[in-house]
Design a protein that fits this description.
133 residues; mainly alpha; 2 domains; 5 helices; 78% helix
């Protein structure tokens, strides 16, 4: 869960890194750099918004690897949370049902007030009497 909390700040950092990188390497507007970053890390494939120089292409390679890694990592964490939450509830309920079915000769006493104490003592005495036979 701790990783899931860091997904958004990490995504913002990746986008900022890409935007600032394209802005300074290629000398384009902030919006063009931002747009190029988004289509690069999401692998949309629209092509280059502006012609990239050699250094811009090297930067784009690193942004593709890092950005795509971030996207895949985010999807895996979100999927893990969804699957584990669902499977945990399914298997937890199934395990509880198995344990309940195994129980024999059990009573559930809710409350241990004045009457609960009397009932508990009565059940305990009957259990002791049964055990002596």
């Amino acid at each position: 869960m701790r990783l899931a909390k860091n997904l958004i700040p990490l995504g913002v950092l990746v986008i900022l890194f890409g935007t600032i990188g394209f802005r300074f390497i290629e000398g384009v507007s902030i919006f063009e750099a931002f747009y190029m970053t988004i289509i690069t890390i999401t692998t949309v494939g629209y092509g280059e918004v502006f012609p990239l120089h050699q250094m811009g292409r090297v930067f784009a390679i690193f942004l593709i690897v890092g950005g795509t890694g971030y996207i895949l990592f985010s999807v895996s964490i979100i999927t893990q949370i969804a699957i584990e939450g669902r499977l945990q509830s399914i298997f937890g309920r199934r395990r509880l049902n198995v344990e309940i079915q195994k129980m024999q000769n059990h009573f559930i006493l809710c409350g241990y007030g004045r009457m609960g104490k009397v009932i508990a003592n009565e059940l305990h005495e009957k259990k002791s009497a049964i055990g002596r036979h």
